Amino acid sequence: MKLTNLSPSSFVFMVGDPLKAWSNGRLKSTNHKVMMSGDKDRFSIAAFIMPNEGTIIKTPKELIDEEHPQLFKDFDFMKFFFFAFSNPARRFDSGQLLYDFAALSPPVSNAHMDK
């Protein structure tokens, strides 16, 4: 994701894997890295929201149909969270974690899933 020519008062909301799973892939989770040029100051605030323990991430039935089959199994958010920071998960690319944890079938290609 590349953002350019933003106003100084811009607000950027980045979707994580749980929202990608909940939306059945309609919302795209993003990898991000800030690149600065010049010598201007930059101020950022990171805010993370986590659901309550025991929250199940489940795609609403309204987002599943013949053209949009369910991509991810229902899962407990905290189990995914702990998986993402586990030793076995270190071998996965961060863009693969959701698929390795909850995909109902392997994606044909990551490239087409996130465009």
UniProtKB/TrEMBL annotation:
PANTHER family named among the record's database cross-references: 2-OXOGLUTARATE (2OG) AND FE(II)-DEPENDENT OXYGENASE SUPERFAMILY PROTEIN-RELATED (PTHR47990)
One Pfam assignment: 2OG-FeII_Oxy
Organism taxonomic ancestry: Eukaryota, Viridiplantae, Streptophyta, Embryophyta, Tracheophyta
SUPFAM superfamilies for this protein: Clavaminate synthase-like
Protein name: Isopenicillin N synthase-like Fe(2+) 2OG dioxygenase domain-containing protein
Superkingdom field: Eukaryota
Annotated Isopenicillin N synthase-like Fe(2+) 2OG dioxygenase domain residues: 7-51
